[in-house]
Amino acid sequence: MSGDTILNVAPIEIAQSRERRPVTAARETVFDIRNLSVSYGKTPAVKDVSFEIYRNMVTAIIGPSGCGKSTFIRTLNRMNDLVPSAKVEGDVLYHGQDLYASRVDPVQVRRKIGMVFQRPNPFPKSIFDNVAWGLRVLGMKDNLKDRVQHALEQAALWDDVRHRLKKSALGLSGGQQQRLCIARALAVEPEVLLMDEPASSLDPIATSRIEDLMHTLKRDYTIVIVTHNMQQAARVADLTAFFSLDVLPDGARTGLLVEYDATEKIFTQPSDKRTEDYVTGRFG
Amino acid sequence: MSVVPTEFPAGRRFGDRIGDRVLYGLTAAAGLGAVALIIGIAYKVFDGSSLAFSKFGFGFIVDEVWNPVKNQFGALDLIWGTAVTSFIAILFAAPLAIGIALYLTELAPRVLRDAIGALVEMLAAIPSVILGLWGILVLGPFMQHDLEPFLKSFLGWLPIFSGDTNANGGKGILTASIILTIMAVPIIASVARELFASVPADLKDGARALGATRWEVVRGVVLHATRPGLAAAVILGLGRALGEAIAVTQVIGSVTQIPNSLFGTGDTLASRIAAQYQGYGSNLQASSLFYLAAILLVFSLVVNFGAQLIVRRFEFQNTGGS
Fold first, then answer.
1. Are residues A117 and B202, on separate chains, in Cβ contact within 8 Å?
2. Beta bridge partner(s), residue B73
3. In a domain, A253, yes or no
4. Closest CA to A254 of A71, A61, A81
5. Are residues B62 and B43 part of one domain?
6. How does pLDDT run across A71-123, given as a tens digit for each residue?
């Protein structure tokens, strides 16, 4: 076993003290992804991915640049629909229902499956209106103030902003803006929160606050996070999926799922050589 | 260790300096030239109007008479004509142009975008005298025989649509307003298009990820984020409408009156100046035309200044302030 080598080369700390869900316990499947392939025009992006994402767990997607992590996560709430050339094959079953069935309205999908993006993208409105906007649009206008406060509390931002709710959201720091975006997503009461490299533009302190938040949020939500930061995956995720690049016979490069397992296993005893090389820092 | 003195090749530096100086000189001259031009024009306009001003004072602005034979001049009818035609033009042009821009940036299939966009911008390239000719030959008869009777039969109970539709061969306030609309649309549309295209995809994604529909994204994010720019674009279009002379002269009827309906003839400040400057009969008439020009200049400056205020206020709201 190569466990020793791994520890010698790149000791990635797995936070044992954190509450980590026993992945073997009974778990409820939220997403059942079957033979999913995505391509842009003739360029394949992700090929033949199959795995399940479980409820109230943090699932991390890691892998090198260009392996289709972002493309993959954007298929989970049909954000790729807006790219005219994107083509999705295979099934994404959400509680057993095919998200790409013809009668499914992508707008309704996104209501249930919220998303936080790589760069904080608050609206150029007040802090309050940022959170309230989605609520107003979706007609959840009863107890608007309470809902906004609750969402801000969930995102651990309430104490920072309670006295300046009317001020522009653009005056907040990057980390606060990202938490505001999380609050905005949570306010409309989704079941799943997709996070596409949510901390990649933040400083270490802001990053650690977002990570802390994920540990709290998974009690109520199912979280899928794409990250290029292995330590981050090790710190927050219960389960980790490692994507890598594959060269097809015709020379095109495409992303594929190499290994999916409990985070601890991925980082200490990966069963695939490519995973081992990646998590130990030996690429290729 | 000995320090080797750094040497700079002198010729190269000298050459650069010449380039710098020439660049500075030319650009500064261009900038100052523009300022001098504005001041010079404003001075000439106000200076030229001094004779009329000393004769009529501010009463000129509220006087309805324009009678070269009796040497009686007043600007009220023309101010009214300018305000009404520009207002109607903007009323039509703003929603139309914003609609076009939204369609082209958010909704149209990629193939159509560039084609339609280019065509809309070509509208702006049509010389106004050609548009005026089209106004006389095509739009005028259409107004006279189709649109005006139609409006009258449905909305005739409104005083503005109650006039005689056959009196002026389709010339009049409404026809001029439509010509001005056609002129303002491409200006507003092309600015609005740039604005909409500049809304970060991030923001739209953020709204879509909350389960917003296309319309909700447009209303809540695209239009919201571009409000100040849109206001400025509309005012740019308004400036075009206020100042247009030739095409208006061709279709408005050039009569000094405040008509009792939009079907009636009238005139605007710019149109009157263009129509009469060649053949003025007295120094007082020429000076009165300068007076009209001064009023138009003040109008335009106020409108532009107002636009800048709006833009600043919104910018402040959008970037951190309170």
1. yes
2. B66
3. yes
4. A71
5. no
6. 999 999 999 888 888 899 999 999 999 999 989 999 999 999 999 999 999 99
For residues B91 and B228, membership in a common domain is answered with: yes
Looking at residue B19, its amino acid is G
What distance in Å separates residue B105's CA from the closest CA in chain A?
A: 13
Tell me the residue range of the domain where A99 lies. Answer: 3-104+113-119+192-279
Q: Which residues of B touch A82 (CB under 8 A)?
A: 205, 208
Q: A36 φ, ψ to 5°?
A: -80, 125
Structurally, chain A folds into a number of domains equal to 1
A18 touching chain B per CB within 8 A:
no
Greatest CA span in chain B, whole angstroms?
100
Q: Taking a C-beta distance cutoff of 8 angstroms, is the pair B173, B265 a contact?
A: yes
Residues B150 and B116 in one domain: yes
**B2 found inside a domain:** no
Digit-by-digit pLDDT tens for chain B (322 residues) are 667 777 766 655 666 678 888 999 999 999 999 999 999 999 999 999 999 999 999 999 998 889 888 888 999 999 999 999 999 999 999 999 999 999 999 888 888 888 988 898 888 888 999 999 999 999 999 998 889 888 888 888 888 888 777 777 788 999 999 999 999 999 999 999 999 999 998 899 999 999 999 999 999 999 998 988 899 899 989 998 998 998 998 999 888 888 888 888 889 999 999 988 887 788 899 999 999 999 999 999 898 888 888 778 766 555 544 3
Q: How many A/B residue pairs have CB atoms within 8 Å?
A: 78
Residue A174 lies in a domain: no
For residue A33, tell me if it sits in a domain.
yes
Contact: A107, B212; criterion CB under 8 Å: yes
Residue in the block written with tokens 């958010």 = B106
- Give the best residue of A81, A99, A121, A201 to mutate against chain B (max B CB count within 10 A): A121
Q: Determine the Cα–Cα distance for residues A110 and A103; give it in Å rounded to an integer.
A: 15
Are A116 and A185 in contact by the 8 Å Cβ rule? The answer is yes
Which residues of chain B does A122 touch, with a Cβ-Cβ cutoff of 8 Å? 206
Task: Report yes or no on B3 lying in a domain.
Answer: no
CB contact under 8 A, B211 and A119: no
**What does pTM read for this prediction?**
0.80
In a domain, B303, yes or no: yes
**Cβ distance of B319 and A170 shorter than 8 Å:** yes
Put simply, the answer to whether B321 touches A123 (Cβ < 8 Å) is no
Please give the backbone phi and psi of residue B236, each rounded to the nearest 5 degrees, phi first: -60, -45
Count of domains for chain B:
2
Say if residue B149 is in the same domain as residue B294.
yes
Question: Does B207 lie at the interface with A, CB-CB under 8 angstroms?
Answer: yes
CATH at residue A217: 3.40.50.300
Q: Do the beta carbons of residue B173 and residue B251 sit within 8 Å?
A: no
Q: Is residue B290 part of a domain?
A: yes
Which residue segment(s) compose the domain that B313 sits in?
55-318
Is B195's Cβ below 8 Å from some Cβ in A?
no
User: Touching check for B202 and chain A: CB below 8 Å?
Assistant: yes
